[in-house]
Every structure is written in C-alpha cells, then in structure tokens.
Amino acid sequence: MHQGGPSSPSCSSTCDCFPLRHLNTAACGSETLLKPQKHELTYPSRMGSVLIFYLCYLLCLGLGLACVVCVCVWNSHWRGGFAWDGSGLQFNWHPVLMVTGLVVLYGNGAVVYRIPLTWGQNKLPWKLLHAALMLLALILSIVGLCAVFDNHNKNNIPNLYSLHSWIGITATALFAMQWVVGMAGFLLPCTPMSLRKLLKPIHVWLGGGILLLSIAASISGINEKLFFVLKGNQTYSGFPSEGVFGNTLGVLIVAFGLVVLKILSNSRWQRPDSRPEDLAYSPLLQEEN
Amino acid sequence: MHQGGPSSPSCSSTCDCFPLRHLNTAACGSETLLKPQKHELTYPSRMGSVLIFYLCYLLCLGLGLACVVCVCVWNSHWRGGFAWDGSGLQFNWHPVLMVTGLVVLYGNGAVVYRIPLTWGQNKLPWKLLHAALMLLALILSIVGLCAVFDNHNKNNIPNLYSLHSWIGITATALFAMQWVVGMAGFLLPCTPMSLRKLLKPIHVWLGGGILLLSIAASISGINEKLFFVLKGNQTYSGFPSEGVFGNTLGVLIVAFGLVVLKILSNSRWQRPDSRPEDLAYSPLLQEEN
After folding, report:
1. How far is the alpha carbon of A23 from chain B, nearest alpha carbon, in Å?
2. In angstroms, rounded to a whole number, what is the distance separating the alpha carbons of residues A268 and A260?
3. Which residue, of A65, A257, B175, B216, is most buried by count of CB atoms within 10 Å of its CB?
4. Do the beta carbons of residue A14 and residue B43 sit within 8 Å?
5. Is A215 in Cβ contact with B217 (below 8 Å)?
6. Which residues of B touch A167 (CB under 8 A)?
7. In the predicted model, what is the mean pLDDT of chain A?
8. Rounded to a whole number, what is the distance in Å from the CA of B215 to chain A's nearest CA?
C-alpha cells in the first residue's frame, strides 16, 4: 500500500497539506519504496495461517452444530416438542428456526469465501453457494417469524411490542433487503462494475451488522422465554436444569458469533480478489466480482 | 500485497503445491508485478474517505450521547431516580453505568486510532488516551456490576442465574483481561516486539467481540427489565410509553454498535502503521506499536 512512482499524479498538491499525506510518501520520492516489496507471507507463516483458519472453521462448524442440537433438545425435551396448530408447540419452531437460519446458516454462509481451498477456483459457484445458503437461512427465518406471529394471533397476544421483537424483525428485514440487493448487485451480469465496487463494502459491513443483531435478538429471546416459563416451583433464579441448559445455548450462540467474527476480521483469510487494495485497483474485479 | 521479487525464497517449493500459491505469483516471475504499483488513493477519493469517516464519527458521538441521555431519562423519569441504599433506586445505576461504560465509552475508546487527524502524530499519547478511556469504561462497568450485586444481596435475590447476567459478566471479565493484557503488551516498554505482533490481531478481534457481548447483554437486560416492571395496568404488550422509550434506547444502542463496527471494519480508516501489510513487515512496528 505504500508503493508508488515518481509519476504519481497527486504528489505536489497533497504531500504537505492533507491529513493522509503519509500514505503518499512513496509518491513524494522515497526511492526505497520504489523497489519491489516482499509482501508475500513466508511458507511456514502461510501454512500456519491456513492451519489456524481450518481450526477456526472446524470450531465454527462444531459450534453451529452444537447450537442447532441444543435449541432442538431444549424445545423437544423441556418445551414439549413441535406442532403447527397455533399452540405453544407451534411457538417452539420459532427459536429452532431463528437460531438455525438467522444465526448458524447465516454465519456459515458469511464465511464461505474465506475457505482457502476455494481460492484457486472460479468464484461464480461459490457466489451461488453463498446466495443459496443465505436464501435458505432467510426462508427458515421467515418461517420462524410466521410461527410466532401465527401463535400470537391465535392466542390474542399482541405482536412486536418487546425490544427482542424489534431487534429480531429489524435483523430479518435487513437480511431480506441485503439478499435482494446482493443478488441484483453481485449476481446479475448487467450490474455495472462501478456499482459493485460501491456496494461491496456496504454489503460486507451490513453482513456483520445483521449477525450482531441476530445474536442480540437470540440472547434476549432465550432470556425472555426462560423468565416466562420458569415460574412456580422451578423459578429461573433457582438454577433449574432447563435454565442452565438455555443459558448454555446462549453462550454457544455467542461463541459461534465470536468465531465467525474472527474468520471475517482476519485480512489474511480474505479471498485475495476481495482484499482492499484489489478492490480498489485489481483488474480481477472486472472478471470475478 | 501481490508484489515480490525474483529473489523471493519460497518460489520453487510452494508455487504449485500450496492452496495460497496465487498469492505468490509475483515471486514466481510475473514481471508486471515487479513494477511499482500505484496503490495510493487519488486526492478526491481520499478526501471523500476522510469526509465519510468524520460523518460516521459524528454519528458515533451523537448516538453515544443519545444512548447515555436516554438511559438516564428512563431511570430517572420512569424508574424513580438513583440512590446507593440497596433499594431499587440503587439498581437503577446498573443500566446507566453499563450502557455508559461497557457500550458508549468502550465503543468510543475503540475508534480513537481511526481519527485521521491523529495519524501524523506520535502514537503514544493516543495509546494513553485509548487506555485511559478503556480504564474509565471498565471502572464504570465494575461499579455498575457492584450496584446490582449489592441490590440483589440486600434483597435475597440470587446472582448470575439469567442468560443476561452470564453474557454481561463474561463481557466485563473479558474486558478486564483485555485491558490488563493490552496494558502489559502494548504500553510496557519491556514487552518484546514479537509478542506485540502476536497479541495485536487477538486484541483487535477480542475488542470487537467484547462489544458484541456488551450489546447482547444490554439488549437482553433492557428487554428483561421492561418485562419485570411493566405489569398490572400497564403491561409491556400494551405499548406503554416506558416500553416504547426502553425499546428506542435498545435500538439506539444497536445503531451505535453498527456505526462502531463500520468504523472498525473499514480498512481505509485504519491507522496506517496498523494495516495488515505494515503489521507484518513495516519497520514502523518497532517505533510505534
């Protein structure tokens, strides 16, 4: 990022008057920076980076699976199982589908591009897999919302009054918007390259933001449900097994979110054509983005 | 990141057998990549980037202030104000101090390095400001925890049984650990450079992770409190003014988190000596990190 040539156009006008001028030292004649820089990672370092990635990815898969298993066990073992008849058993689909769709599938869909094995291959199949995983996640989330709206309506319970519901519905609405804009922006061949370049950082940031919202909605939802159902003989404050199990599910969800955040935030694990410098300058953008 | 020289040592052994080999094309003799690359942003692009940063930063300050004002108004106007006598008025310090410390001050402390005006200056004063803001945030969070533990103990309410409390105590414990390790790792002059290099990505990732936990804890806490107190004539499900106000506070907290995430995730707004390529190779590391 610090290389440049004497022919760089912005030297005289910006070197001494702009807060970012140190970014432009090369353009102002630092000859040492004109030499090719050894910016590749050494072999052991790259090998270590790939190994750590796969450890994190395995952890991501394992934690995701654990979240899905735990939310199913909670609702089948302690909450009576599942039905689609407007009863409390219909409500039980809500946590299962939201955790599976809006957290686990969503998080796994977000990290697809980071798998190093895919980097030497054409990006299109991986774009399609990303879009397909996200569509499946979105469908599960919408069915999960239908489960709770239908249950509320049949039992005369108002909808969308709690903070949990505000955050959850916002996460799902942003997710639906993100999927449609992502589809139009990155998969339709007629979308101009300039628009894709503009959209990409917003898509990546909002992707992380939706995960933040979905985790906040999950934690507040599990917490609220446990307060609702653990009353009488078995209050939540008495540390009953269901309370401890539900809390453990919440901790697993947060741990899953932290691992996804780790994978997304490590610049070494970005698909190379998506690195900032390539996004701004690489001709790959015209072939693959 | 894609430059290299013919003398790069890892060429023959890795070019055709390693999943990251395309990162090393330059080292394998791609002559076009030996030329100096024009990686600086053009002046209008840099100017635009700086302007957008300051808009985001203003939004971050504005949303942070709005969160603090709202949480104070909620607890003074609807919850009866503040005291330190073990009563419910003592509990009211808990949301105020946690939102102010663990969310707003913490988020503002995290983005200090991103302010472009500071980039041309010595990093040490900004490190000290980062550490001081984080210490103040940590102290407020710990006092906020004391408020609720003391209130629970004096009213024979068990501690740490809910998912909200598990996530909140984990966030504060990780924050305390992060502050101590950050202090030892980045401010003590005797810490080896190799250890700083190792710690930095973990510090940055865990920093984002703690914000995720603190937002999840805040949302679940506000949601839980509103269910606790909005009963009888004014149930939460009847959309009373306190419920809508509390939900709005939750939305402001999430919006603040999204803006902080936006500032942290934009690689153009990273202090230059912290960009990935500099972290790995720049001699600046030995002067400033």
Report:
1. 7
2. 15
3. B216
4. yes
5. no
6. 219, 250-251, 254
7. 84
8. 7
Record: contact A266-B201, CB cut-off 8 A: yes
**How close B143 comes to chain A (CA, Å)?**
23
Would an 8 Å CB–CB cutoff place B277 in contact with chain A?
A: yes
Q: Is B70 in the A-facing interface, judged by CB distances under 8 Å?
A: no
Total-model pTM: 0.83
Which residue, chain included where needed, has tokens 């003799």?
Answer: B29
Contacts 24+ apart (CB under 8 A), B16-23: B18/A43, B18/A46, B18/A47, B19/A50, B19/A116, B19/A117, B19/A119, B19/A120, B20/A41, B20/A46, B20/A49, B20/A50, B20/A116, B20/A119, B21/A120, B22/A119, B22/A120, B22/A272, B23/A40, B23/A41, B23/A46, B23/A272
Average pLDDT for residues B256-273, to the nearest whole number? 92
Specify whether the backbone of A160 is left (phi greater than 0), alpha (psi in -120 to 50) or beta.
Answer: left
Determine the angle formed by the axes of helices B163-186 and A193-229, rounding to 10 degrees: 130
Partner-chain contact B163 A37, CB within 8 Å: no
- A73 Rama class: left (phi>0) / alpha (psi -120 to 50) / beta: alpha
- CB contact residues (below 8 A), chain B span 170-229, against chain A: 170, 201, 204-205, 208-209, 212-213, 215-217, 219-220, 222-224, 226-227
Out of B40, B219, B280, name the one closest to residue A163 (CB).
B219
- ipTM summary value: 0.83
Q: Which of B125, B130, B118 is nearest to B54 (CA)?
A: B118
Cα A202 from chain centroid? 13
* Helix ranges (DSSP H) in B155-192: 163-186
Six token digits for residue A119: 């980097």
Residue A68 has pLDDT above 60, yes or no: yes
Beta carbons within 8 Å of A266's beta carbon, 6+ residues apart: A53, B201, B205
Alpha carbon distance B111, B50 (integer Å): 14
- pLDDT value of residue B272: 85
What is the reported pLDDT for B191? 95
User: Which of A35-49, B137-151, B211-225 has the lowest average pLDDT?
Assistant: A35-49
Tell me which chain A residues have a C-beta less than 8 angstroms from the C-beta of B107. none
Q: What is the mean pLDDT of residues B128-147?
A: 98
**Does residue B75 register a pLDDT over 50?**
yes
Q: Which of B168, B230, B216, B229 is nearest to A222 (CA)?
A: B216
For residue A9, the model assigns a pLDDT of 35
Of A44, A52, A42, the closest CA to residue B202 belongs to: A52
Q: How far lies A176's CA from each of A19, A106, A134, in Å?
A: 39, 12, 9
Q: Which two structure tokens, joined as six digits, stand for B208?
A: 């984002």
